[in-house]
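Quick illustration, no need to memorize.
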Amino acid sequence: TAGEDVIKGLLPVLDDCERALQVLDSASDAEAVKAAKEGTELIFNKLKSYLGSQGLTLMEAVGKDFDTDFHEAVAQIPASTPEQKNKIVDVIQQGYLLNGKVIRYAKVVIGI
């Protein structure tokens, strides 16, 4: 029962996903696809808002110094300017903090 409140908080997002899938199943024109895209954005924002209320924050990475306490380098590219050296130039997978603690490292590309 420890996760019951978390699951209850996610149920409205699950409901919205089901409704979005129903719309996509019946979509046949550009207007329906546009409506489905807007609905998906609303679902995403609702999920992000709920997770934020539970203490989840997105790790900002692009342009920051590479830090192994928060980032995992998955690729290196030549830096186009000296300022990009040892800086994060792209994020392959977002990193997240839960109440200030890293729960997933950001997978990043760094300039060398």
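The helical segments are 4-26, 30-53.
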